C-alpha cells in the first residue's frame, strides 16, 4: 500500500512518498518522478553589489519577540560576563574559551540587523578599546576565523568603519601562522600573541571541515584590505584538497597538516568535523561570482556522493535522512547530527543558482525530517544526534540519552530561512515559530538562554551555558525568517559564513 502525504507550498507541491510494502527495503536515492518534478522560481534580482544594506528594526510581533529575546540574553551577558567569551546564564558566571569577548564580537551584527543601536554602540566601543590579540594564548584557528574575523569583516562592510577593518587585519596577520605547516594545510591551534601554530595535543591531525571553512573570511579580508596574501593562503588549501582522492567527492574528517593527506578510513559525515567543507565549496563559488569551476565541480560530485552513499530512508515511514560512513570499516551508520540540518539550506541555495532540481527535492524532504527531530519531543527541541531505524514497524527515529542534549543550535532555522527566502513559503516561518516557542519555554532562564540536558523531558536540567552562536546565528536567523521582507539579507548579494556573518559577493 502506498500512502501520499501532500504539503501545499507556495509555488510548489511537496510530495512525500511513504512506501510501506517492505520494511526491509531502503531507498538511498532521492527520487523525483517526472510527473512530480518541482519547478521553482529562481528569484534572482540584479542589484548594485556595492550597496550597503539598511535595517529598520522589527516590523511584526514575531520579530519583536525575537528582539526581546536577544535583549534579554545581551542584558544578562552584560551584567554577569561582559568582556568574557560566554555567559553561564543560570549561575550568572562568566566562561572563557579564547578570552576574546566572543559573545560581543560574534553577536554585534545581529544587534545591527535588529536595529538595536544602544547594544550595538556599547559592543562596538568594547571592540574598539578592549579587543586585543596580543595575549600569549592558544586559540582554535577555525573558530576564531568564523566567529571573530568573520564578524569584524561583516561589521566593516555594514558600516565602513575602518576600526573594524584594522582589527580584522591585525587578527588576520596573526592567524596566518596556521598556514606554516609543511603542506600548507593549516594547523588547528594558533597562539595569537606569539604568532605560532601547532597541531592539537591529542592528535597530529587537523579537522577537514575546519581547514576548509576559513576561505570566505580570508578571501574577504584580502578584498577589503587590497592584500592578496590572505586569500592566496586560504585558496591554496582548497586547491590542495581538490587534488586529493575522495570517495565520490566525500571526504574523511581528519587531514594531516604535515603530509597534506587525509587520515585513511576516518569517518565520512555531513555532521561534526565534515559539514562545512561541503557548505564552503558552494559558497566560495558564489562568493567569486561563479568563476572558479573546480569548486562547483567538487560540490556537485560531493552531492552525488551524498545521494549515493549517505542518503537513506527510515522505516516504516521512509523519511529521508543523511547517515555516516563509520571510521575504520566505512560501514553505513544511520545517525544524523543536528549539524547536518544545514544541508537543506545549502542544497536550496545551489538550486536557486542553477543546480539540478533533485537538489531542491532533497532539500525539502530532508528539511521535513529535521522538523520531525524537533516535533518528536515534548520540548519541541531537537537533540544533538538522532538515530534512525532502517528495519522497524514502529518508530522511524529515536534519541539515545547521551545524545539528548540541545545546545540551541542554529542549523535547522538557518535552513528554514534559506528556504523561506528562496520559495516565499510561509510554512517555514510557522515551523520556526514553533521552535522559537520551545526555546522560550524550556531554555530561557534568569540571565539568558541555557542549553538543556534532555529534550525528551519537560523538566530537563539546564546545562548553564549560552553559546555565542545562539545570539550570532540562532536568533539572527529567526529574526530574518520572521521578516516580511524575504530579502532582508539578499542571497543574490551576500554569502553567509558558517557563523551567520554576511559577506559580499564579488564578480570574480
Unreliable runs, pLDDT <50, ≥5 residues?
A: 1-29, 31-49
Helical content class: 40-55%
Tell me the radius of gyration. 22 Å
Q: How many individual helices?
A: 15
| Average of pLDDT | 91
Q: In whole angstroms, how far apart are the ends?
A: 52 Å
Outline the biggest β-sheet: 3 strands, antiparallel
Oligomeric state: single chain
Structural class: alpha+beta
Beta-strand fraction estimate: 5-15%
- Enumerate the strands of the largest sheet in spatial order, edge to edge or round the barrel: 5-6-7
Principal-axis shape equals globular
Q: Could you characterize what this model shows?
A:
This protein has 15 helices and 21 strands. The protein is an alpha+beta fold. Strands 5-6-7 form a 3-stranded antiparallel β-sheet. Strand 6 and strand 7 (196-198) form a beta hairpin. The chain starts with a strand and ends with a strand.
Task: Give structural attributes.
three-stranded antiparallel sheet, 508 residues, 15 helices, disordered N terminus, alpha+beta
Topology (SSEs and partners):
Elements: E1 2-9, E2 12-19, H1 61-81, E3 86-88, E4 93-95, H2 102-113, H3 117-130, E5 138-140, H4 141-159, H5 162-175, E6 189-191, E7 196-198, E8 206-207, H6 208-211, H7 215-225, H8 229-243, E9 254-256, E10 261-262, H9 275-287, H10 293-310, E11 311-313, E12 320-322, E13 324-325, E14 332-333, E15 335-337, H11 343-352, H12 357-375, E16 385-388, E17 397-398, H13 411-423, H14 427-442, E18 444-445, E19 448-449, H15 468-481, E20 494-496, E21 502-504
Helix pairs in contact: 1-15, 2-3, 2-4, 2-15, 4-5, 4-7, 5-7, 7-8, 9-10, 11-12, 11-13, 12-13, 13-14, 13-15
Amino acid at each position: 500500500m502506498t500512502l501520499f502525504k501532500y504539503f501545499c507550498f507556495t509555488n510548489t507541491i511537496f510530495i512525500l512518498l511513504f512506501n510501506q510494502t517492505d520494511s526491509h527495503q531502503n531507498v538511498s536515492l532521492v527520487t523525483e518522478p517526472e510527473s512530480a518534478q518541482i519547478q521553482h522560481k529562481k528569484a534572482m534580482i540584479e542589484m548594485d553589489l556595492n550597496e550597503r544594506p539598511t535595517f529598520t528594526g522589527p516590523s511584526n510581533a514575531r520579530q519583536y519577540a525575537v528582539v526581546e529575546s536577544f535583549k534579554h540574553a545581551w542584558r544578562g551577558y552584560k551584567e554577569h560576563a561582559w568582556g568574557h567569551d560566554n555567559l553561564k546564564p543560570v549561575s550568572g558566571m562568566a566562561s572563557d574559551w579564547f578570552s576574546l569577548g566572543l559573545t560581543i564580537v560574534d553577536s554585534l551584527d545581529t544587534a545591527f540587523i535588529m536595529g538595536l543601536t544602544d547594544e550595538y554602540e556599547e559592543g562596538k566601543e568594547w571592540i574598539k578599546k578592549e579587543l586585543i590579540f596580543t595575549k600569549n594564548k592558544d586559540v582554535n584557528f577555525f573558530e576564531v576565523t568564523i566567529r571573530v574575523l568573520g564578524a569584524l569583516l561583516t561589521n566593516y562592510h555594514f558600516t565602513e568603519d575602518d576600526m573594524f577593518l584594522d582589527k580584522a587585519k591585525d587578527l588576520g596577520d596573526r592567524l596566518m601562522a596556521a598556514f606554516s605547516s609543511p603542506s600548507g594545510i593549516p594547523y588547528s591551534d594558533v597562539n595569537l600573541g606569539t604568532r605560532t601554530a601547532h597541531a592539537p595535543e591529542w592528535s597530529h591531525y587537523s579537522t577537514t571541515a575546519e581547514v576548509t571553512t576559513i576561505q570566505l573570511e580570508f578571501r574577504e579580508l584580502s578584498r577589503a584590505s587590497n592584500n592578496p596574501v590572505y586569500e592566496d593562503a586560504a585558496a591554496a588549501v582548497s586547491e590542495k584538497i581538490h587534488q586529493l582522492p575522495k570517495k565520490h567527492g566525500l571526504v574523511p574528517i581528519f587531514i594531516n597538516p604535515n603530509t597534506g593527506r587525509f587520515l585513511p578510513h576516518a569517518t565520512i559525515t555531513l555532521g561534526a568535523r565534515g559539514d562545512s567543507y561541503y557548505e564552503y565549496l558552494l559558497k566560495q563559488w558564489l562568493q567569486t561570482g561563479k568563476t572558479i569551476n573546480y569548486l562547483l565541480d567538487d560540490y556537485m560530485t560531493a552531492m552525488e556522493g551524498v545521494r549515493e552513499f549517505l542518503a537513506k530512508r527510515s522505516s516504516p515511514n521512509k523519511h529521508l535522512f543523511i547517515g555516516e560512513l563509520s571510521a575504520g570499516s566505512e560501514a553505513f551508520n544511520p545517525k544524523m547530527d543536528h549539524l547536518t540540518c544545514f544541508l537543506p539550506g545549502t542544497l536550496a541555495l545551489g538550486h536557486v543558482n542553477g543546480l539540478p532540481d533533485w537538489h531542491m527535492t532533497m532539500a525539502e524532504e530532508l528539511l521535513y525530517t529535521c522538523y520531525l527531530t524537533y516535533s518528536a519531543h515534548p520540548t519541541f527541541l531537537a537533540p544533538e544526534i538522532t538515530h534512525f531505524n532502517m528495519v522497524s514497524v514502529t518508530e522511524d527515529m529515536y534519541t539515545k540519552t547521551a545524545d539528548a542534549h540541545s545546545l540551541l543550535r542554529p542549523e535547522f532555522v538557518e535552513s528554514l530561512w534559506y528556504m523561506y527566502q528562496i520559495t516565499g513559503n510561509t510554512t517555514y516561518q510557522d515551523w520556526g515559530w514553533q521552535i522559537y516557542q520551545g526555546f522560550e519555554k524550556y531554555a530561557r532562564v534568569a540571565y539568558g538562554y541555557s542549553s538543556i540536558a534532555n529534550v525528551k523531558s519537560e523538566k530537563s536540567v539546564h546545562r548553564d551555558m549560552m553559546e555565542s552562536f545562539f545570539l550570532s546565528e540562532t536568533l539572527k536567523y529567526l529574526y530574518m525568517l520572521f521578516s516580511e521582507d524575504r530579502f532582508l539579507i539578499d542571497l543574490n548579494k551576500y554569502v553567509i559564513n558558517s557563523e551567520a556573518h554576511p559577506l559580499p559577493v564579488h564578480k570574480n
